Model the fold of this input.
Amino acid sequence: MRHRSSAAACALFASLALTLTACSVDDTPNDKGKSKDSMPTPTLALEPKDDALAAQVPAEFTKKTLVMGVSEYAPYVTIGSDGKITGLVPDLARQLASQLDIKIKVVRTPFDAVIPGLKSGRIDLSAPSGDFIERQKEVDFADFAQSQVTVMVNKESGFRPESGIGICGHKVGVEKGAGTENVLEGLSKRCAAKGKKAVNPQAYADLAAASLALRSKRIDAVVAPSASNTSVSESSDGTFETLELDDMLTLPAATAIYGIQAKKGTGLAPVIVKGLREMQESGTYAKLFGGWQMPLSTITRSQMLLNGSKQSQTK
Done:
């Protein structure tokens, strides 16, 4: 589940690392209408250390720098051509690092390598990712956001489906390993029931690559969560348009609660849940999402749970 413009995509394979401690937040101004390699980070004071919560962090995570694996998915994560990682997730990691008195390093990690990386210990955290019951068997989730699937098209191609069925038989880009693969699988079944050709999914390592393919018209659409597709469309100088197709929202994995993933059973995710709830009470949580123009992606305090989703990725 991710994004961005062709300029940002040029840096996708760069080695990226950004250490997050109790430091100031980048407040580079946002010049609307101009193409940016990376979005500005809204100015926001860091959460103070919470001694009680910090004491609950498992000892193994207080003695090292935690590695958070992320992939391109604006505005949650944007990777600039200079190698800088910005977005809501790095900002949220800064807040958690300050609040829990830990160190977090953000590194680029292909989405389909996240769960294997968490299980092997190569990475300690990752976000965002859809919290589905199938995934809960392998990792823990600290739920913090929500999303729904959308369809992005290239306005120059003339392809503008009015429903999900209108996508039948077309080449559609998705992120490899993401829940949107299940969305297209479910859509193909509907296509077959209507006597139409199945969707032709094209899996990419991240959504930046899918966006490039759409720009060059090698595919007809990109299916991805609303936050990513909307961000790409708004920064495409009018080339892309994001569509919300109501009949697709009932497909498997078309809507999701997003979580911060951690290795299962380590005790780290439960502390993060408590930290998120504290941020919700302090107002930091709402300010973060508002600063990144994502107010509709927030969830309530009662939804901030450990493995709180009961949703299946395939049913």
Q: What stands out?
A: The radius of gyration is 19 Å. The first strand starts at residue 17 and ends at 20. The chain has two domains: 6-146+258-302, 148-248. The mean pLDDT is 88.
